[in-house]
């Protein structure tokens, strides 16, 4: 690419753009169901510890790599050391795996928005509503195509800036609404048990799989280990503080995830009469629980509609950032124009998205190691590829270019207070933990051994 790279305007521009990519379905849909499934308080604690160590160090590293090289992932690794170009390539595959199934879930959100707007709010609170919706062959695919089409349209027309502007207003409203719903949720009869489950760690539930799930979620939620933050870093101005920006993104991203958990998990307890089996609902958890909350709330139909609209926006800013990334990789790799690349990515997503959707209905007999098709894509990207990319990034920074190279880059803008933490995590703690956790939980999923 010969055109000059544009850069984010102002100090806050970078944080807002990165937060737009980070805050999405990962926070509101994925975090609560994982926390519910993997032991509540233990998961939350592990997640927070990982966020302030791994998450912090890796995000600083990725942004600094991007800013230092001025390149996106594939070229950034290669330009620093030829032998590591392949890390950029693996990283770039990840958004392409995520985008199709992300859009399937985006389609579910669109369906619920429609249900709430069209007066179906009460019906959506019934037990069978969600299951009968996702097991239909055509309807979920229709909503997936609508969501995917919207994303593609924005990318094709190049109007991301417009969407970002709207979402700058929507995001704070989303935070306020999530707080209101969370406060209501914890006051429902029987919800206190859920609050305890979510906030008090029960260490007997701790396992390697909990750590891997939390780690995968951390990467996913903060858009790490997939080249995205390298690209964002390449647009960052040199006088902006990397460390401060990372803190701001982390607080915002983790804060929303925490609130989403508080909104959903206590309600699961309240509506299931304390039956813990209800916690293991996986990807469907939010869609089953929230309509019940709205149904029991004063003005629930209006609040529900507003909520799903805001979540749809958060999901769109994320899917747009995912698609933008995939399209730019396709453009660079094949030299195709923007329109052709968009079309190619769109078709590719349809090919992977349709089976992900059918996996909850007529193709539910297709499972890999007990996982549905959508869960399988999710597992491969979050629990296998991202940890591998994160590990290789740590080795690359810790032992090839050396932490000092990035510390110097970071210090151009402002002093780097946590540079010792950064170095220790990148060189020793993260690589060792990632390898141990990856091995033990892959074995676990394959059913070879249970830790
Ligand atoms: N971080 C987003 C979320 O939590 O929903 C998911 C995501 C968006 C990942 C954009 C990667 C990305 F480029």
Number of strands: 0
What is the percent of helical residues?
Answer: over 70%
Give the CATH architecture.
Orthogonal Bundle
CATH fold field value: Hydantoin permease
Number of domains: 1
Number of helical regions? 19
Distance between the termini: 49 Å
Broad CATH class: Mainly Alpha
How do the helices and strands follow one another from N- to C-terminus?
Answer: HHHHHHHHHHHHHHHHHHH
Main beta-sheet strand count, sense and barrel state:
none
- The percentage of residues in β strands lies in under 5%
- Class inferred from helices and paired strands: mainly alpha
The overall pLDDT, averaged over residues, is 91
Hetero groups in this structure are: 4-fluoro-L-phenylalanine
Assign the CATH superfamily: Hydantoin permease
Q: Note the overall shape.
A: globular
Could you characterize the architecture of this molecule?
This protein has a single domain, classed as Hydantoin permease. With 451 residues, it is mainly α. The chain has helices at 10-22, 25-37, 41-69, 73-80, 85-117, 121-124, 127-134, 139-157, 160-186, 192-199, 208-221, 228-234, 242-272, 285-295, 300-334, 338-358, 373-401, 403-411, 419-445. The structure holds 4-fluoro-L-phenylalanine (PFF). 4-fluoro-L-phenylalanine binds next to helix 1, helix 2, helix 5, helix 11 and helix 15.
Give the topology, please.
Blueprint: H1 10-22, H2 25-37, H3 41-69, H4 73-80, H5 85-117, H6 121-124, H7 127-134, H8 139-157, H9 160-186, H10 192-199, H11 208-221, H12 228-234, H13 242-272, H14 285-295, H15 300-334, H16 338-358, H17 373-401, H18 403-411, H19 419-445
Bound molecules: 4-fluoro-L-phenylalanine.
Residues 21-22, 24-27, 95, 98, 220-221, 223, 226, 228, 318, 321-322, 325 line the site of 4-fluoro-L-phenylalanine.
